[in-house]
Amino acid sequence: MKKLFFILLAFTCFCVKAQEKPATTPAAEKLKTIAASLNEYSNKAYVEKVHIQFDKPFYSLGDTIWMKAYVVNGSNELSPLSKVLHIDIVNDKGIVKTTGTVPVTKGLGWGAIILGDSLLQAGNYHIRAYTNWMRNMGSEYFFDKAVKIGNALSSARTTVADNNTQGIKGQDISVSFFPEGGDLVTGLTSKVAFKALGTDGLSREISGYVVDRNNKQVTTLQSEHAGMGTFMLQPTPANTYTAIIKYNGAEKRIALPKAKDSGYVLTVTQNDNNIAVSVSAGSNLGSIAFVAQANNIVQYAATKTVERNAFTTLIPKSRFPEGIVQLTLFSPDYQPVAERLVFVHHPYSYLTVNLGADKTGYKKREKVHLNLNVTDDNGRPVTAAFSLAVTDETKVPFDEVDEKTIFSNLLLTSDLKGYVEQPNYYFTAITTDKTNQLDNLLLTQGWRRFAWKDILSHTPPPLTHQAQTGVGISGRVTKGGKPVPGAKVFVLFNVGSGILYDTVANSDGRFTFTNFPFAKGTSYNVSAVDTKGNKNFKIDIDKQNYELPAIDNLPYEQPANNNFLTYIENSKARFEGLLKEKTPDNAIMLQEVNIKEIAVKNSSSLAGPGNADQVLTFIDLLGCQYDLSKCLEGRLTNIRFKPDSAGTPGAGMTPYSRGFDTPMTIIVDGIERPDGLTSIMSADVSSVEVLRGGGASALYGLHGANGVIIVTLKKGDINYSAYETTRQHGYDKADGLKNYTFNGYDMRRQFYSPDYTQPANKQVPDLRSTIYWKPNIITTYQGKASVDFFNADGTGNYRVVVEGLGPDGKMGRQVYHYAVK
Fold first, then answer.
1. DSSP tag of 37
2. Can you tell me the distance from the alpha carbon of 690 to that of 678, in angstroms, rounded to the nearest whole number?
């Protein structure tokens, strides 16, 4: 309410005379009602958006797609709502070829997709990502990225046919016209925007001119970028207008929208500091109202009685956040009569991300140390979440304009309906021309996160899809077709030595388990016993099949063909080298090894690696996708877990040795962690060693008196994914239990980065294109972080891309290059 009060005090910005003071008038009260109605609607229709950073722009069969997801609200702050992200790979026929789920914690999630040739073939695809809640707003607002996939595994040279060939050769185009504000009005000069599209849904560059009903030329037109442009037109009474479009040597006549006899024309321009809003009409404007909103929040509202037919005001751009602003003009009866989208750019609102290496140039297979330093627009350090990808640019040529960045996605395309070609074009090397071309885009692109008629009529949004807080199991217990109320239902997950859950069926025999942390494909058994101890019941498990949203027919932009072919040829050489050495992709050929020895290799335990009362390895933790406290609960002998003292719902658990009232000491990679196990994801853990007491824990002095849990995180010198993929885990199902397969999260994989200080790793050619991937970088309170990795055998420029989000939705991105000789 404080924010709305400030807005109403700012009404004088819309007035002609500076001495006029805001007053509580019926018009002001009406604006309060409009703002309150929008706020009410927005609270119900909570906005979620998704951005994903990928390791590279295109792939081959046999590759792994590495990705980091940022789930945010309408203000681009990390969203606390959804805990599950769905990801689909859709082919050019609109068929979902594979789908997966990624766990999301505090708006962050990451995962990997293996491009196997059993489900996919070379072609053009779209990767779309969404939460279940986002389905309420329509698939137009899903994250979507076009991806080209080749086949470097084939012995023959592989290319992918251009799906755009027919559209490029075809002469048929469509051109749409959009008068600024909504309508042409007789006698009033308007800006008219246009957009030209081919049959493939992609833009076409056109030229032409406009004639009236007497075939007299009144103006010319020429597209400026992506088939879009503008021209000025003043309709005369009883006249009609037609555009003569020239394209590929042919002409096409298209009628312009008919002018209204009366109405309003809204004209918007901007400079570095202000947005200029002009309103004109055929007669005196009378009482008009104006509302400007961003992120579904009213940022500016004003009303004024104007005794003439034109009016202009300036609105400081500082009132608005970075991104799209919707400007709406209301008539005297408070009906929306004109509308306009503008993009407000604040050059210094982003996080400053300084990325640098310890050297300007490196040798092949040399160790690289990168430092990350992040500050806000006032130079203060920022704690923020980032992801980082390093690629060999010789093998993976990039065009920054074609990238889908955190800026172009969260600030632009995630809030627009329809397909936007090369959105990062508007954020790369910004010029006056590009600013005008971005304005043309917003004149022609759809935006409908809400309709004013719904706001004014207090019509609530249809919310049929609930936010998912996890993945679970539900079903029904019956006997002879009748429910068994009060039956105790047991679910035993075949992970490690087994994890058991139980609940009680309701009066209809139904039961529900929620928020299981296990991976897709994990087996589980279900049994039930009634209050008398009887066990022979029928248990029906509800299908976990997820209903896929409808597929939009999206166009596909081709990457630069030479860039893609360069990548495929280099990938082909890499795969051939791996096969020659009989080495699986991205891994040294695995021998029979002692998993425990591998897991504790980097242990910091003072008792010595593996010398503990109990050791769990990354294999034991397979399938558990939650934080480590939840994954260890019930699996550590003589250790109990209690909710943390804060009692926060969904918070982690604190471990205690039995017989002790003081928590155990947690050591992570040699450093004591007072925040416990909650902040550690199990997928990042190599081993857990437990020292319960006696001589081993005595090595830690007073800190070890109540027992010690030593956690060793995964390091890049071990190919964990290869061990996890080849290792068979689980155990035989118990007698009399029915076995099921859990449709849970896709297994989180660890990116393999070789350690070339180890002699064994020097035997195999290293032709990787993705050199390093780190999805979960958190800067310290000093705004700093660092990563270490080894170069591959490729020489030339290596490209480092880091993206991330800080507090209050501030985002950052940096691209850095270094040379390898």
1. H
2. 17
Contact 58, 564 (CB under 8 A): yes
State residue 760 phi and psi, 5-degree precision.
-65, -30
Distance, in Å, from the CA atom of 275 to the CA atom of 256, rounded to the nearest integer, reads: 28
Rounded CA separation 71/78 (Å): 6
Contacts of 40 (CB under 8 A, 6+ apart): 458
140: closest CA among 447, 588, 489?
447
Measured CA to CA, the distance from residue 26 to residue 6 in angstroms comes to 18
User: Bridge-partner residues for 197, per DSSP?
Assistant: 174, 203
For 294-311, the three-class secondary structure string (H helix, E strand, C coil) is ECCEEEEEEEEEECCCEE
Structure token digits, residue 10:
């700012």
Inter-residue contact 98 to 153 (CB < 8 Å): no
| Structure-token pair, residue 349 | 């609102």
Separation CA 419–CA 310 (nearest Å) = 35
- What SS3 state is found at 596? helix
Rounded Cα distance between 71 and 108, Å, is: 6
317 CB-side CA count, 13 A:
19
- Cα 390 to Cα 183: distance, rounded to the nearest angstrom: 49
Bridge partners for 747 per DSSP: none
Q: Where are the alpha helices (H) located in 281-392, listed in sequence order?
A: none
Q: State the Cα–Cα distance between residues 341 and 417, nearest whole angstrom.
A: 13
Angle between helices 26-44 and 2-9 (to 10 degrees): 140
Residue ranges in 384-444 assigned as alpha helix (H): 406-410, 432-444
Q: Which of 116, 115, 130 is nearest to 56 (CA)?
A: 115
The CA-based angle 678-682-687, given to 5 degrees, is 110
Q: Which one has a higher pLDDT value, 196 or 542?
A: 196
Q: Determine the Cα–Cα distance for residues 36 and 1; give it in Å rounded to an integer.
A: 9
Give the chain's end-to-end CA distance (angstroms, integer).
61
- Find, among 740, 689, 278, 667, the residue nearest to 490 by Cα: 740
Separation CA 596–CA 208 (nearest Å)? 73
Mean pLDDT of the 664-674 span: 86
Q: Is the pTM of this model over 0.70?
A: yes
Note the pLDDT tens digit of each residue in 126-179.
999 999 999 998 888 899 999 999 988 764 344 444 443 333 344 689 999 999
Quick: pLDDT tens for 175-197: 999 999 999 999 999 999 999 99
Q: Which amino acid is at 356?
A: G
What is the percent of the chain where pLDDT is above 70?
85
- 343: how many CB neighbours lie within 10 A of its CB? 18
DSSP assignment of 250-282: EEEEEEPPPPBSS-EEEEEEE-SSEEEEEEEES
Q: How many CB atoms lie within 10 A of CB 568?
A: 25
